[in-house]
Design brief:
The complex is a heterodimer of chains A (about 110) and B (about 110). By secondary structure, chain A is mostly beta strands. Helices cover about 0% and strands about 50% of the residues of chain A. Chain A has no helices and 11 strands. Chain A is globular and about 40 Å long. Chain B is globular and about 45 Å long. Chain B starts with a strand and ends with a strand. The model of chain B has no long low-confidence stretch (mean pLDDT about 95). The chains are: A mainly beta (about 110), B mainly beta (about 110).
């Protein structure tokens, strides 16, 4: 099993450009989520999904869009990149959306917006 | 509002010098409290889940404990390979299925 796979690992964008961070998991997990990690602020939840076709907002959703058309994939779209979106992004999944479930994280995607 | 606060922000220890990391939380109906370890340039990796006050779990040199307001991660006789950032997180019984993280404690263990 590959676990949670994120692509790309590194990306540099110019202000105003759009892009998609990809996340795929092969563990048949129902729950998937996106976090951003900034120095001194820990991991902050952007969006999450409890199953295919269902998404919801986390703490910092503005400027990001998600969809969940399959159980395996949960892409994160930046609509118009801003320097404030420079961060490390982590995708995480867990077996189901109920109960206290352990998250499995990807290796992260480092995004720089100039 | 669900909140997780970790202290200290950074901790420097000599090899063999035991210490504790603190995680205080406020949450509406705790479903579970988690400890993760994160090495530089990598995603967090799961260490422990605690469900109720009084519960304790151990793994090698690490022991996690839980009260109604806080959790401690005790590190006994640490080694340099224990150097990492340790993250505490909570999952609440209300507010959907969100896991809320603290900012982490960076641990440095010197040989």
């Amino acid at each position: 099993n590959a676990g949670v796979t994120q692509t790309p690992k590194f990306q540099v964008l110019k202000t105003g450009q759009s892009m998609t961070l990809q996340c795929a998991q092969d563990m048949n997990h129902e729950y998937m989520s996106w976090y951003r990690q900034d120095p001194g602020m820990g991991l902050r939840l952007i969006h999450y999904s409890v199953g295919a076709g269902i998404t919801d907002q986390g703490e910092v959703p503005n400027g990001y869009n998600v969809s969940r058309s399959t159980t395996e994939d949960f892409p994160l779209r930046l609509l118009s990149a801003a320097p404030s979106q420079t961060s490390v992004y982590f995708c995480a999944s867990s077996p189901e959306g109920t109960g206290a479930n352990v998250l499995t994280f990807g290796a992260g995607s480092r995004l720089t917006v100039l | 509002e669900d909140q997780v606060t970790q202290s200290p922000e950074a901790l420097r220890l000599q090899e063999g010098e035991s210490s504790s990391l603190n995680c205080s939380y406020t949450v509406s109906g705790l479903r579970g409290l988690f400890w993760y370890r994160q090495d530089p340039g990598k995603g967090p990796e799961f260490l422990f889940t605690l469900y109720s006050a009084g519960e304790e779990k151990e793994k090698e040199r690490l022991k996690a404990t839980l009260t109604k307001k806080e959790s401690f991660l005790h590190i006994t006789a640490p080694k340099p390979e224990d150097s990492a950032t340790y993250l505490c997180a909570v999952q609440a019984g209300t507010g959907g299925f969100k896991t809320i993280f603290g900012a982490g404690t960076r641990l440095f263990v010197k040989a």
